[in-house]
Amino acid sequence: MAEKKETKKVEKKVSEKKNEKKKAVEKPAKPVKEKKVEKKATVKKTEEKPVVKEAVEVNKNVLQMVPLITEKAVMLIESQNVLTFKLFRNATKKEIKREIEEIFEVKPVKIRVNNRGSNKYAYVKLNPKDPAIDIATKLGMI
Fold first, then answer.
1. Other beta carbons less than 10 A from residue 69's beta carbon
2. pLDDT confidence tier of residue 17, bands split at 50, 70 and 90
3. How many angstroms from the chain centroid is the CA of residue 101?
């Protein structure tokens, strides 16, 4: 009988300790969850997205061209009066011609477009009255 009483006491102590551990674990867990929710509520991601969209929409109308400065490009400038550009989005020959006329105030005679892999290159042949060397020096290519 003494053994039964002792085992009951030990079982009560063990169960009390388990209950205390559960209470101790449950109490800190609740405030931590509330803090995470509060942090998510304070971050305003919706305000950032429209700003990025506006910047992208502004750049859609501008044709992004970068002049190529390679030995072949310089050779084409000197011998055939041709400027070479790398394009960053799909553009038609009419768009390229309009952009060249606006930026450099020169009328292109012929435009050739070459797709290599994921890159697009434009070869713009200029009128002999407007030397490509002058435009290349303005761009800092030569």
1. 14
2. low
3. 30
Contacts of 69 (CB under 8 A, 6+ apart): 141
* CA gap 104, 67 in Å, rounded: 13
Tell me the CA end-to-end span of the chain in Å, nearest whole number. 106
72: which residues sit within 8 A by CB, 6+ positions away?
Answer: 84
Instruction: Locate 65 and state its tokens.
Output: 């061209």
Two tokens, residue 97: 């011609």
Flag whether pLDDT at 70 surpasses 60. yes
CB 83 within 8 A of CB 124: yes
Task: Calculate helix-pair angle for 132-139, 71-80, nearest 10 degrees.
Answer: 140
